[in-house]
Amino acid sequence: MTVQAKDELVPHPVKDQLPGVDICINSNPSWAEAVILGFQHYLVMLGTSVIIPTIIVPQMGGGNVEKAQVIQTLLFVAGVNTLLQSWFGTRLPVVIGGSFRFIIPAVFIALSNRYNAYLDPRERFEQSMRSMQGALMIASVIPVLAGFLGIWRIVTRFLSPLSKAPLLLLVGIGLYEQGFPLLGECVEIGLPELVLLILLSQFIPHVWKLKLPIFERFAVLLSVGIVWAFAALLTVAGAYTNRPLQTQFSCRVDRSGLVSGASWIRFPYPLQWGIPNVDAGHVFMMMAAVFVSLVESTGGFIAAARYGGATFCPASVLSRGAGWLGLSTLINGLWGTPSGSTASVENVGLLALTRVGSRRVIQISAVFMLFFSVIGKFGAILASIPLPIIGALYCVLFALMSAAGFDLLQFCNLNSYRTKFILGFSIYMGLSVPQYFKGYVITTGLGPVQSGSATFDQIMQVIFTSPATVAGVIAYFLDLTLARRHPLTRKDSGRHWWAKFKYYGRDPRSEEFYSLPYGLSKYFPSV
After folding, report:
1. CA-CA distance, 492 to 56, in Å (whole number)?
2. Which of 15, 136, 306, 347 sits between 20 and 30 A of 270, alpha carbons compared?
3. Is the pTM of this model over 0.70?
């Protein structure tokens, strides 16, 4: 056989399930390995759980004590919600945590003029938190009804690989501001973390062959431990003593204020801040954030199924997950957090990095969330990891989440001009529109939509600053309307392949991955 014949170009075979996954959803590593992997997932989700209160709580009048209490509450509800989603929701290995998309409405509520009358910072904090609670609890009705009434099932059945690809791609890439910009706040610890993580997870396994895949699976723990110790050494050595306060806050390991603010033992409980208040304007803003979170979480679910070694989620499973996501937001509001729930993007990326998609690992991580939310001091020590280290993790994990979007293109016809237009236009607008909205606020202090209603203006700001939502909606609309009756459109979009996953019973593997435990599928059948 000639070299030319050996090198003949042929398409790579299409794969319903991602090859190379070491441990899939229904498989389990050893208990010791599962505990370590679960702790690693807990460590990864800490970043968002710290960043959100760090931004919002000071605007509410809270200090380090209130920030520590909100972080503990976020961790507690994340643990509960992750267990509920993995047991009764999509059954996917997905962490359900806080979402950056709730920052805009939460800050708007916190800065409302009505709270200027409260001179005591603690009272101001509690009053603004009650308004957020009331808005979240009512807004949670949207995904609950959409999910459990089957509305989201109808919507997602019209998805195709072509319209899903921009959604998944922008769920990760759309968070680029939380990556290198966060790392760059302290380059001397953020950059070593990024380089070390890539070396340990990607290069060393190919050079140094071990019987156990230690570097591939535990690269996050190893790299964070090394760089965190390096940051502590710089702090003790006085490297930041005379540096600006912002640099000290970003680089030092003793400037978060969480350890001093956290209690040794504290059980978050429902209505801990008082009886929620309800304001119609606040509710509508939270509804917009809940909708955006639902769209982005749908992308997270699809990617988690891929990286977990499962077949793609049937529409009814996505709808079931949406309903439980709404209940998660209700729990967030009941316990008192400034954020609703979403599928954690960074933890989906960690599934790809470790090649372990075990459901048990995620459930163990939820136990860590519950434990450290109660044992406040120990949890605060871990939550004090400098944010530039977290930013370095995001650079890799968000990128892997985005790669799941490219994965779907194998089912599409990339030689079609229709495919190229839908992909290119939706992705470009998904980046350009949010940048316009954010840039307008930076230059003028106001959003580009100025209708005279502050509530409506903020709703538009929430929706159109989400790259995944903009790209996903545009791709969804174009795929359903552009050249719809052309005979090649169905195959170009990959709908001929997606058809067997539109309905739960069309693929026998759906029962293996997505059936409810304890025989509940008999009483709550998927269709």
Report:
1. 45
2. 347
3. yes
